[in-house]
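Course assignment 3, question 2. Fill in each field.
Student: A.L.
Task: Predict the tertiary structure for the chain below.
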Amino acid sequence: MRIGYTKTELNLAVAVFGILVIAFGHGLSWYEQILPDLYLVEKALAKGTTVYSTQTELEVVDTPAVVETPQEAILEQPDTIEDKIRRVFGSEADNALKIAQCESQMNPDVIGDTHLTYVKDGATYGDSIGLFQIRTFVNRPDRELLKDADFNIGYAKKMFDAQGWHPWTCKRVIIK
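Answer field:
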């Protein structure tokens, strides 16, 4: 899936619109004016040449016939939370999904363990934030970062790599 239009497609749309305006503006029948010009426009766009209409001139400059979607654009497609967890956790994705489901019902906005909060130097700590319900401590990322689903998933993966599933109360759903 790609986003947007290629330069060729945009130029073709502008050319077709111009031909329609010319043809209908002068009372000509569509089959007398539009069909021959559409063929010329399409052929010229494929070559990146100048297009001549019977009424006006349309210029097409350096338009490739085939435009591939860059890999970066494919990677920028919106992913579901499940897709993101699967990509980050790899072979442990099924277990990570079970943990996230148990901890937050896959809701990145959940704030839990509020009964465990405390204040130190004006900041609140002790509650758990986001998909993986990561506990806020003095030496951990701040709560605003943990509210971001991508950051929460990445930080949960770092915790998992260091400690396995032991930091999570919901480890019981995967460790029998």
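Instructor remarks: The chain is about 45% helix and 10% strand. The chain has two domains: 1-77, 79-173.
Grade: pending
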